[in-house]
Amino acid sequence: MKTIVRGKNLEVSDDDRAYAERKLGRLERLLDDRSDVIVELSVERHRSMADSHIVDVSLTIDGHALRGSAAGPTHRAGIDEVVDKIERRAVDFKAKPRLRARPDEEKVILRRLADGQADASRARRIVKVKRFDIEPMFEEDALARMEELQHDFFIFVNAETERVGILYRRGDGNFGLIEPVIGGEYATGMERNEAGKRR
What string of DSSP letters covers 150-178? Predict the structure, then answer.
């Protein structure tokens, strides 16, 4: 982290410079070598003595500028206050995920969102279809085959029920079995058709 302490129409004392650098050293844990901090000290004569010493800090973090300002009876008091402000802002900045796009890219993204357009390049689609022969087998055989192949799931036709079964490995090390069943109105309609055929 590079720290620059300068005065606006005043000479910065070595003591004030060292104090500012020491206090801003607290921020090093949040920053990296590319971060810059500029501290500008000034005095405004027309203000009351209680807040005549002005401290402005500009911090560059991940390409973004964070600014803070404070006034106090001395520059050291102003430095104490502004460092607290900047530290809170830096912590919030690092904690929150942000859109790191450039301004023009942000406008395009926001325009697409406003128009309700999905980005075609990111749309999910089926890119591969796998077909394979499937033979009826018992659950125990399907489990043995799944273990043999070292797969996390295995699709088979159950020899007892003649239904498709999907074996899968659970997080606890055991196995689960999914047996799809056609339901809803479609099944009810099929059952009616089957009953009609029997008559």
Answer: T-SEEEEEETTT--EEEEEE-TTS-EEEE
